[in-house]
Structures are given as structure tokens and as C-alpha cells.
Input
Amino acid sequence: MSKNQALGIFGILRFGLVQTALGAIVVLTTTTINRVMAVELALPALLPGLLVGLHYAIQITRPKLGYNSDLGGKRTPWIIGGMAVLAIGGVLAAVSTLLASTNTVAGIALAFVAFIMVGIGVGCSGTALLVLLSKCVTPKQRGGAATTVWIMMIIGFIFTTVLAGKYLDPFSYERLVLVTSVVSLIAFSVATLSIWGIEKKHIQTPDASDINSLQKADPSADAEPPFRQALQAVWREAESRKFSIFVFVSMLAYSAQDLILEPFAGAVFSMTPGESTQLSGTQHGGVLMGMLLVALFCSVIGGKRLGSLRLWTMGGCIASAAALFTIGMGGLLSPQFFPLSIAVFFLGLANGAFAVAAIGSMMDLVGKGMKKREGLRMGLWGAAQAIAFGIAGVGATALVDIAKWFSGEVYIAYAIVFVLQALLFLVAARLANDVYQPAPESAVKTQAHLNDIGSFALDQER
Output
């Protein structure tokens, strides 16, 4: 059997480049194209919400993908193939706006096909990438590797929104298609070149004699264990269940502004598509700085207080709530003088601090509970996030339409939604406090006993 070679910092950065490329396509699809549909095409805000919700709905299969992540096959073709589908979907999403400008029904139909492809592409490439990364790094490297990859995805958001924003003005649908096509082609090329050869170099490949020996020793070794029972067993783990609920609520609050921030900037602050796209870049710049800030205090400065993941998770949620409330009130009271870009930057700063602290917590918790369920556990949390993102997209855009219909004023409608988001973040802060509370010793023993029983039962069923 070939032996693994250690994955160094440059190898982790290559994984990060794939995530950067993935983020570059996704951010144009879920922000700029969403804004064009809601403002330039004057379509109901619910429509892009449904489209983005559709691409998240497809990703609820992540627990099964995580559960099957160790069952044969190469990951590289899934990553490259997923990126290809994602790139084509991103281009078709831009083409759908051009088509909708002359034929609304045909444009909407093409948009649904495009967003289905985006969802499939993200699910295939993203899941395979995380599985391959987890196999290429040591347990001690996982937290730093995950944070590095996440930060590089944010860099992809920033680079794309700032650069694409400059080339989108003066706006035309043809220009949107051209910019999206160039970004998608570059992203696919970067992802392919970055991931090529990593799996062959860093993953152990069993010889045929090794496989035959294993099958003779245990003919059932390659049998797939029951997924449903394993999922139920993981859900019964108190920490996994509480963290799943926290991820759902916090991601609901975290992602709800994604589909309304640019339309809000255009409708209330009269920003052009290029200006509102650059505003998203400002937000992602704040996210990046917030992540780096937490990494600095937790990894470099340290300390029991300033290095506490609990402190940064809860503090990030509370600060995000304050920023959202300020943005909503700013649009309601004085849109002519309110420094929207500054408020959006601080929203990103708070979001970044919360997000990277939650990632650190996820890496700490994924190995707790039943053994050999790390992939399923991570998949469960990924599904909670995807479901929250989908509901947030549909819910936020639908609430804007409903509030606009009742109030008759667009700025009031957006203010209502931003305030509701702020309340969700406060609920998430309360849930985070429960996640970080140490369980009583008796509860720990009981949970460990249940985990042992669950592991034994699943082994018997195999």
C-alpha cells in the first residue's frame, strides 16, 4: 500500500483556490443576478428567492454524501465535474436575465434550469472537496485547513464582486452575460489546475492483493451500513443535535440578507448594479477581517477569555444583530445621509467573527460522539446550513414583497425584514450559549453509554 505524503501549507492553499473559484461563480449568481431580476427586470423579489432556495434544496443530500464519503471512487472527477456544471449553470443564469428582458416566461424557465445546475455543481464539488481535504490533512491540521479554505472563499467573493462590479457599468444584459462567462471560465480553469494531482499524491491507494486479503478476512467489509439508523443515532447525541439547531438558526439569520442587500441598496439608496455589487464586496471585506481577527486572538494571542470560541460566537451573533438593526433604521430614517457602506462593512465584520468561531466549534465537535460518524455528522450540519440558506432566501424575499404590499413603502418593507433578522441572531446567541455549556458528569456518562449501545447495534445490523 502506498504511503501518504504530508499535505503542507501550499497543498492547503491549493484546496483554498478551488473554494475561491467556487465562491466566485456562486456570488455572482446569488447576488448580482438576483438584484437584476428584482430591480432591472422588476420581477417579484420572491422569484430569485425561490431560485436560490432551489439550489440549496438540492444540497440536503449532503448527509448521505458524507456518510458514503469513504466508499470507493476518486474525488477529483467529482470536484472537476461539479465545477463544470456550476460554471455552465452560472452562465445560463446570466443568459436567463437577457432572455427574460424580451420573453419573461422563457427567461424564468431557463433560470430554474440554471439554478438547478448551480445546486448540483456546488453539492458535488463542495462535498467532494471537503472529503478529500479531511483525508489529506492530519487531525491537528483540520481546524486551520478549514479556516484557510473558508477565508479563501471569502477572498473569491471580494475579488469577484469588486472587479466584476467595475466592468458591469454601464449596465446591459449583454455585458452581464460577458462578465459572468469570463468569471466562470477563469474559475473553472483555476479549480481544475489547483486540484489536479493532489489525490494521487496524498491518498493511500490499496494494492489489489490488499483488497483481496481484506475481502477474504471479512466478506462483509465492503457492505454499506444502514444510513437511516446511523442518522437517527447521531441525532440522539445531545451535542450533535443542539449544534444542528444552532447552525440552522444562525445560518437562517446569517444568509437572509444575501438576497435583499443589493436590491435594498438599489431601491432605497438608488445605487447602480455596479455600485451595489461593490457594496457586496465591502461586506465580504468585513467578513474576511472578522475571520482574521478571531484567528489572531484564538491562535496567536490566545488566552482563556479572548481565545474563547464561545465568546466570539455569541459576540459575533449579538454584533450582527446590532448591525442589521442599524441598517434597517438607516434606510427608514435618512437614506440620503446614512453611511450604508460603513454599516455593511461592520455587518460583515460581525458575520466573519461569528462564522469562523462556529467553524472552530464544528471542528471540535465533529469527532465527539459515536466513532466513524464524522462524515455523517458534518453532513448533518451541512444539510442544516443548506436548508437554512434555502428558507432564508425564500422567506426574506417573500417578506419584502408582503411588507411592501401592506405598507406601500419599499424602505419600510426592508426595515421590517432587517429587524427580524436581528432578532434571529439574538436567538442564535442564546442557542450558542447552550451549546458551550458543559454537560453534567452524569449526562456525559449516560450519553457515552447510549453511544456505545448505538455503535454495537449498528455493527450487529451490518
Confidence is low (pLDDT under 50) at residues 206-222, 440-462. The domain at 9-202+226-461 is CATH 1.20.1250.20 (Growth Hormone; Chain: A;). Residues 374-407 form the longest helix (34 residues). DSSP finds 18 helices and no strands in the chain.
